[in-house]
Predict the 3D structure of the following.
Amino acid sequence: MLPDDHDDHPDETAASLAFAIATTSDVQAIVALVNRAYSHHPGAKGWVGDRAFQDAERADEAEVTELITTPDSLMLLGRHGSRLVSCCSLSHVGQTAHLGLFAVDPDLQSQGLGRATLTAAEQFAATTWLAERMDIEVMAHHEPVLRWYERTGYILTGEQSYYVERSGRRAATLLGMSKTLVKGAVGGRLFQR
């Protein structure tokens, strides 16, 4: 899902990302990217592949379609050329945005794509929704991911919840993190619908 410490120094792939808002025609590609990024199997690359999860899929078409079609919710896509390489879900209530279902192509991690996607999501939330804060939930047992978010300005809120698989099995403790978004301090990325 997220790149490692090398992500603090983006390469040209991250600099060339184009961001867009997903449509229902993107659902299958999003599901494939997310499930690949979250998968765990011998030789799997990436940060999120986790033995704690027993479900075969982290996301399905119905869930992603709902994220895309629900008011005040969307999927942000990062593309390198025509290739989908990153995505995240965004939603908001009032001036608080929430980021979730964050995935980066495991073959392209550690190249700045995670940071570029996170920055684009923050920019979108601050400029389009006038959000003042971005909230996220991070699996408690993924220390490197927690530290990565801290380096990007997120702080632990003390809130806790649980990731529950479709089977009803509680798979992981989630820790709440939050970041204050500064309006007017974001770059001028173009978003397309």
The first strand starts at residue 18 and ends at 21. The domain at 5-134 is CATH 3.40.630.30 (Aminopeptidase). Strands lie at 18-21, 73-80, 83-93, 96-104, 133-139, 155-164, 170-180, 191-192. The chain is about 25% helix and 30% strand.
